[in-house]
Design a protein that fits this description.
The chain has 408 residues and is of the alpha+beta class. It contains twelve helices and 16 strands. Strands 1, 2, 3, 4, 5, 6, 14, 15 and 16 form a nine-stranded mixed β-sheet that branches. Strands 7, 9, 10, 12 and 13 form a five-stranded antiparallel β-sheet that branches. A two-stranded antiparallel ribbon has the order 8-11. The two termini are 16 Å apart. It binds (2S)-amino(hydroxy)ethanoic acid and manganese (II) ion (MN) (2 copies). The site of one manganese (II) ion has 6 residues, from loops. One manganese (II) ion binds next to loops.
């Protein structure tokens, strides 16, 4: 008999977690390793302990709650993240972690001990909003970067990951990745408009698109806004602004899945009557096709070099994150589709436009993702919303699939 779970707990816990770093409009802000993140971590750890999970914190602050199985085998793991962006919604990441806890609650309520252990995890700094790269905790877990490289990452104020982990009390003792799952599942909101527009209930995620994050530092010459003729300007802000326009034009020319975002831009001295002598901005490029992503990167770099020469400014580029597209395990993707259809839920196969911890876990074990619709495709926005019935449906698919895998 496959256990059903209590809808109330999932919705109530999502609500309770969203109160930490609450934003008007219903979202929450818990940037990685801030005090808000610590409070969110403490709350979820307390829920893990209430459910009888053996809670382990690893050396990059990933937290794993383990439920023993009948046999001491590699676990079936589910998880996501509970850190958010500054304009975070309440479902991004949080939903997958809390639904994982509901899988445990349902098994406890049904007094079911599965053959394999069950693990529920949240990973450190998935968002990459404060420290880069994103998916940092799962990347360390999967052996993608070393601990020291992760510890050395600093935010805009020069504060490091290592110091912040220590400060909030989450620099744990276990070795990241020591617990290698037999399979990994991540339940997540789509964060895009496809399922909502097509009125489909479950996204069967086959892949995650490639991600390129580059920070550019432009150095020009500050000058008087009124007296300096245009021919004499070395305007750092002009280059930054023109890259944004170029990137938008480039996506139109390339078509397909190519997207481009200049998400952060800081000018100095940032005054109305001074030609900026410094601009620091980021370019986020993504594509499901690695060759096309490389083409987009090359065209942006060539454009920047051209404008830098004509504007006589210096440009320094720093790669903040670069991940190739990831294809999930085909057999596991099929099982996601099977369990959704077995619940008479409409499905469609799709790539993920957003990055996720699952894309790192696929390096370690067969991995797949389950999407539920985002109303109007909104995410990284306080008005992010998914209908309660859709949240419950996605969690039931997760539960049914995990029970099947935990008996394998
Ligand atoms: O940027 C992303 O796709 C993820 O939210 N870190
Ligand atoms: Mn997320
Ligand atoms: Mn996110």
């Amino acid at each position: 008999m496959t256990p059903k779970f209590s809808d109330r707990h999932l919705l109530d816990n999502l609500d309770a977690l969203a109160q930490i770093g609450a934003l008007s409009g219903g979202g929450c802000a818990r940037l990685a390793l801030t005090d808000e993140d610590r409070l969110g971590r403490d709350l979820v750890v307390s829920w893990m302990k209430e459910l009888g999970l053996d809670v382990r914190i690893d050396a990059i602050g990933n937290v794993i709650g383990l439920r023993a199985g009948r046999e001491n085998l590699a676990p079936i793991m589910t998880g996501s993240h509970i850190d958010t962006v500054r304009t975070g919604g309440r479902y991004d990441g949080n939903y997958g972690v809390l639904a994982g806890l509901e899988v445990v609650r349902a098994l406890n309520a049904a007094n079911v001990v599965t053959r394999r252990p069950i693990a529920v995890a949240f990973f450190t700094n998935e968002e990459g909003a404060r420290f880069q790269p994103d998916m940092m905790g799962s990347l360390v877990y999967a052996g993608g970067i070393g601990l020291n490289e992760a510890y050395a990452a600093v935010d805009k104020d020069g504060v490091s990951v290592g110091d912040e982990l220590r400060r909030i009390g989450y620099l744990g003792a276990t070795t990241p990745g020591a617990l290698k799952p037999h399979a990994f599942l991540e339940l997540h909101i789509e964060q895009g408009p496809i399922l909502d527009e097509e009125k489909v209930l479950i996204g069967v995620v086959e892949s995650v698109q490639g991600i390129s994050w580059i920070e550019y530092t432009v150095t020009g010459v500050s000058n008087h806004a009124g007296t300096t003729p245009m021919r004499l300007r070395r305007d750092a802000g002009y280059l930054a602004a023109s890259v944004n326009l170029f990137a938008r034009k480039l996506t139109g020319e390339m078509g397909g899945n190519q997207v481009a975002t200049v998400g952060s831009l800081a000018l100095r001295p940032n005054l109305i009557n001074v030609v900026p002598n410094r601009a620091v901005f980021t370019v986020d490029l993504r594509n499901t096709d690695e060759a096309k992503l490389k083409e987009a990167e090359a065209r942006v770099a060539a454009y920047i070099a051209e404008v830098a020469a004509s504007e006589r400014v210096e440009v320094e580029a720093k790669v903040l994150a670069r991940f190739e597209p990831v294809i999930f395990d085909a057999g596991l993707v099929d099982r996601v589709e099977h369990h959704a259809k077995a619940l008479s839920l409409s499905t469609r196969r799709m790539p993920s436009g957003a990055g996720h911890d699952a894309q790192m876990m696929q390096r370690l074990c067969p991995t797949a993702m389950i999407f539920v619709p985002s109303v109007a495709g909104l995410s990284h926005n306080v008005n992010e919303h998914t209908k309660p019935a859709d949240l419950i449906a996605g969690a039931q698919v997760l539960l049914n699939l995990m029970v099947e895998l935990a008996e394998s």
